[in-house]
Amino acid sequence: MPDLPEHLEPLSDLIEYFDHVAIGVRDVAAAAEMLQSLGGTFLTGADNQRQGFRWIQYRLPGATRIEVLAPVTDDCFLWRFLRSRGEGMHHLTFKVSSVTEAARRAEEAGLRVVGLHLQPGGWSECFIHPASAHGTLIQLADWPEGHYPEASLEQVLAGEVFDYD
How far is CA 63 from the centre of its chain? Predict the structure, then answer.
């Protein structure tokens, strides 16, 4: 594999770990049933009011985490995704130590960075556009420990839980 030019810094020292795979769906409750049938354990979830979607996360055997996203408002970006691609994988998420630095390095490497959202002390993220990542949307995110809401699946499905974003 060719080395990066000397003036470019790799992202590898910023990536702390691979966190999860996210799939876009129309029905979160149906997806929850499917994940439970695979031996999944509900972890957390909420409604993201800023972007108009509901999300849940499950841990599957082997410690793999799956996130499910579904639109809850008519103007949610997930409707475009579902209309054009149907249900399926939406993105891969890597926990990084600095979203700002990861975005800078990715752009310097010629990758198209979109959706930069910085919230000091909260959830920060950016995405590497699929056109720069072989058809896969890659989320680079950072969040404080204990960021995820504590709630039951029933509370999340009823729309009673809101994330901190």
Answer: 17
pLDDT of residue 6: 61
Q: Is residue 49 part of a domain?
A: yes
* Predicted local confidence at residue 120, as pLDDT: 87
Backbone angles phi, psi at 18, to 5 degrees: -80, 130
9 occurs within a structural domain: no
Domain of residue 85, residue span = 15-147
Alpha helices in 51-137 (DSSP H): 77-85, 99-108
Site of tokens 């475009």: 80
Counting DSSP H helices and E strands in the chain, the numbers are: 4, 8
Residues 6+ apart with CB under 8 A from 8: 105, 108, 109
pLDDT at 138: 98
Q: What CATH number is attached to the domain comprising 63?
A: 3.10.180.10
User: In the chain, which stretches have pLDDT less than 70?
Assistant: 1-8, 146-147, 164-165
Domain count, the chain: 1
Q: Please state whether beta strands 138-142 and 88-96 pair in parallel, antiparallel, or not at all (unpaired).
A: parallel
Write down the pLDDT at residue 61.
92
Residue 162 located in a structural domain? no
Is residue 78 a part of any domain in this protein?
yes
